[in-house]
Amino acid sequence: MNILIIMLYATLFLSQPLSYTGNKHSTTYQPTKKEKKLIAAIQSGKIKTVHKLIMQDPSLLEKRTKGKTPLLWAAEYGELSIIALLQDKGANIHTVDMKQENALMLAADKGHTTVCQYLINEGIDINAQSIFGHTALIAAAYEGYTSICQLLLDHKADISLRDDRNHDAYDYAAERRKQVTTDKVKNYENIMRLLLEMQKQSDQPPLNLLNL
Predict the structure, then answer these.
(1) DSSP code of 25?
(2) Whose CA is closest to 60, among 45, 41, 80?
(3) Torsion 112-116-119-125 (CA) sign
(4) Engineering a disulfide at 91: which of 2, 50, 86, 137 sits with its beta carbon 3.0 to 4.6 angstroms away?
């Protein structure tokens, strides 16, 4: 009888919707009209609208939509002027989303070189890792953004960091090189070369060099 009761409670518990406690919203959280308007303005690069909304309601700076603050959305969309505005109004440049991705990771993943440079200059953690172990360098290497990889390496990005699959940036560049069409092969080859050169010049541990 006790076993049946325990099984019933377990079934009821597991059937409940998943919630994310890190940003105090469940995964089914519906943003307000103001929040939607703010994110839309960021996506469109409408800095005057962003400024107006923040002045009307400063609490929007820390509101999270899909786990991301306005500054994180601005980094993902590559809106440098909006990032600077939000930072000037008090937004935390070091904030992370529900996957522990910071603004640099989001910008690197989308190929926003100028934003990456700005964030690095502002002192963001260049070697921060997400809950999956991904770094900005891994993101850039995976997407084939040679200039961002070079930028990160110039600022001492750790090439030895590995994700939860035990893969480093070189592994992903090598893996993607086999998957892409000929027009992007050169990008991945250049990234692999950069990483190998950096490894030779530094005291960092050897790259995985996995045959993926």
Answers:
(1) E
(2) 41
(3) positive
(4) 86
Of residues 96, 115, 199, 113, the one with CA closest to residue 157: 199
pTM of the complete model: 0.81
C-alpha closest to that of 122 among 81, 82, 84, 78:
84
Helix (H, G, I), strand (E, B) or coil at 19: strand
| Residue whose C-alpha is closest to residue 134's, from 92, 174, 165, 178 | 165
Predicted confidence at residue 16, as pLDDT, reads 34
- Cα–Cα dist 144/191, whole Å: 7
**49-79 pLDDT tens trace:** 999 999 999 999 999 999 999 999 999 999 9
Tokens 């919203």 found at? 25
Amino acid letter, residue 111? G
- DSSP element (H, E) containing 117: helix 113-121
d(CA 50, CA 42): 7
How many beta carbons lie within 10 A of that of residue 75, not counting itself? 33
How many other CB atoms are found less than 10 A from the CB of residue 131? 13
Looking from the CA of 50 toward its CB, the CA atoms found within 13 Å total 26
